[in-house]
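In the previous lecture we treated proteins in isolation. Real proteins rarely work alone, and many bind small molecules. This record shows how such a complex is specified: first the sequence, then the SMILES for pyridoxal-5'-phosphate.
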Amino acid sequence: MLNRYVSKTPKSQQLYRKAEKVLPAGVSYFLRYIEPYPFYTAKAKGSKLIDVDGNEYIDFWLGHTALILGHSPPEVMKEVREQIENGTHYGTAHELEIALAEQIAKMVPSAEMVRFTNSGTEANMYATRLARTYTNRDKIAKFEGGWHGGYDALDIAIKPPLDVPESGGLTSGTLRDTIVLPFNNIEEARRRIKNERLAAITVEPVQGAGGCIPAEREFLKELRELCTENGTLLIFDEVITGFRLAPGGAQQHYGVLPDITVMGKILGGGFPVGAFASRKEIIDHMNPILHERPKFSFHGGTFCANPITMTAGLATLKLLQDGQLLNELNKRGNNLRQKLADIFEKNRVDVQVAGVGSLFHTHFTHEKVKDVRDVFRADRGKLLNYHMHLIMNGVFFLPTRTGALSTAHSENDIEKLLTKAEIFAKKN
Ligand SMILES: Cc1ncc(COP(=O)(O)O)c(C=O)c1O
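The predicted 3D structure, ligand included, written as tokens:
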């Protein structure tokens, strides 16, 4: 299979030789590395990526799941083109940031006020700081397998071995101040935080990087109660689920409201973004007119609320707000997961098709997958082969990662995935 990949991607191989001299591992994010080298994308449109060798791929990775309307959707691009003529970056207050914050407050049930950042990582960082300021507590908790970006306090226990730090440079103080809890296991979570005074518990309602594993509804409900009982803020990291599971994200889907919501990806309409939202009483601690140091919690940045991002985000949310496109996408996702499961079952391949709504993943195991430990007990080698087989056949998943649907995917695109999955299932 690797020989076929190499013979189809000679220009990418040449580019990789140049890239590895100036970019560690030849990429700007190791996640995007593919063995023996990544293909380099030349352009993208709708549901398709085209690489520098002219190979076309149906894209189920969708820019880390951000592109719910596909690549460069015409309705959004039109507004962006107009905005470019009016300035790309103001560095002053402007109307578009108000409009997008109002739109978020309208759609996301627990969001009253918003602050914008440039990435989900930053949004989690400032949300954590806000929770610490508001509660006047240091420690926080997160779940095994939860990915919230590279911010020190949350870049812990992402994948097995869970007790080995994910990165160098995390101080012992950081590691001590973050308590790690088991996902989808409220009893054990309750036991582990019994003697702690936590500022916040951060949770992804559907673990994305952790294997596309939805939280159980009861688990989230009880987590909400646990936080309320302990004066701990509940933070939902909705960077993936926001504006995807429902117009109001996972909190609408599950009917459980957090104190702080972290957003990103879809919110940027294809441009870099992050945001966090909360009720006025909490997030007003970012207003130094109301709260002096040390009750004031700083947030800011050169490109925050960039007008291009605000324009693209607003155009995107307006298309998603009535829920019609998302309902349709969720139905197509349910259907796709069912069909994938049927294909593997028919061919007697042990697979758990994970996910919810328009998010999906395949884990090669006969055991139920309910957390990242189960995900890593599954046959990861087979998963890699499956994704490489799909890439070789013009269907792109970032190897071993979650897939997502966009409104740009046609029925033919989905049929092609199913056909190629079946060929793999028959051979395995
Ligand atoms: C749930 C979740 N939170 C936070 C992040 C970090 O966002 P960003 O990559 O924009 O910094 C990600 C990124 O994949 C994510 O999936």
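Summary for your notes: The chain has 16 helices and 16 strands. Residues 74-320 form a domain with the Aspartate Aminotransferase; domain 2 fold (CATH 3.40.640.10).
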